Task: structure prediction
Amino acid sequence: MIKQRSRLCGYITALAVLTIDQLTKWLALGRLELHHPESLLGNFLRFTLAWNQGAAFSMPWGGPLFLTVVTAAAAVMVSIFIWKFGKHSPLFLAGLGAVLGGALGNLLDRLIYSKVVDFIDIGLPGWRWPTFNVADIAITVGGIILVILYRKEAAAEEDMKEKTDGGD
Result:
């Protein structure tokens, strides 16, 4: 029963991320002009509609078909991980769900438009981060959650090993 709830947490997170990602992209496509920044917090945070044919954060990597196949494969793998790792904490599975939802959001764009809709534009005078979207945020935050929890788990296992080895 706990496995089912944890798995559900992962899949619900993926669905929520996918929904929010696609809704924000739909709004961006309907309200923004291509490459015309709309300021939110001065020059620091702007919405600028852009099409991304590359990988995350507009990195040129592999071409559209390759990226579509890799993204689809990653989404399938993460979905399987959520199912297989159902015994892990809901937070761990939510991290996987965030990665899955982000991957599905960008995959859906690639299937519909052959490129990804980006619109979040941050930076300072003289420096701008590559434009990104909610899916990219979810993949990044989900990955950070997984790394933190993995390191925490590894440290706990090391402590347990030291305690059992020290008792001999």
About this structure: The two ends are 38 Å apart (CA to CA).
